Amino acid sequence: MDQFEVKVFIRLRPSVLDPAGEAIKSASSKLGVAGIKSLRIGKMIEVKIESKEEDIKEKIELLCDRLFANTVIEDYEYSINKL
Amino acid sequence: MAGFTVGIVVFPGSNCDRDVSWALEGCLDIKTKFLWHESSDLNDVDSIVLPGGFSYGDYLRCGAIARFSPLINSLHDFVKSGRRVLGICNGFQILTESGFLPGALVANKNLNFICDDVDLNVITSKGGWFQKLNDTQNIKLPIAHGEGRYHCDQDTLKKLTDNDLIALKYKTNPNGSTSDIAGITNEKGNVLGLMPHPERACDESIGGIDGLYTLRSLITQ
Asked: ipTM of this model?
């Protein structure tokens, strides 16, 4: 068994309106930062997991597909780092 | 109705379970039974309500964690048997997260938690969820949600439209829902998910009785 640190990034699909992102975009311009063309909010999940190396990808895919993200509205990507 | 029992599912964070029970027992004389989400025995109930609230604190996404409860697992056979399942608000979110109904519910377009009475058009008669309604096919029900904007892709919307699965549409869209959708059914018609709260419109003294049609239909075979 090996130890892995996994970072999963989840973001709303481009077709889904992100009103919270729009609100932060508006606040950013009030801070005086001009030129922001797009701002969208996502989530990042950090997982530390013990697994056989050959199984790790399958386990993370299962977690992403069935729990971490709702693929009707969200896309995900992840990075796996062996500790 | 004698011999008929409606199961009301209670998750940690449900908060409309007792309202549903009050409306069914007090207004319609229908026997109810609370079902803790850890239970998987659905043999002694004839239909099921997934009530509103904030199951598991809406962690991750509304309804995302509730879908893994033993009861939701048992719900697949229950639905296959043709018995009725009504998901109200958070219950609707759980039904979409669990795959019983297509699409998803996301944050309201204006980011506000909206608490209001809304006018709705009844679109389909599938499942008979709004039977005994007068000819106008309009009802008024309360809504109370922060994440009630129905979202689906164009293919799903076409399927919903072509198969007559859109149950309710807002007359004036309050939350940015795709195609003004407030509620949908499955293809068989025995599962209905809707954001408005029929249990809060069951007595004239609290502002209307249009919710009675839907709750009464729970005891339709």
From this structure: 0.85
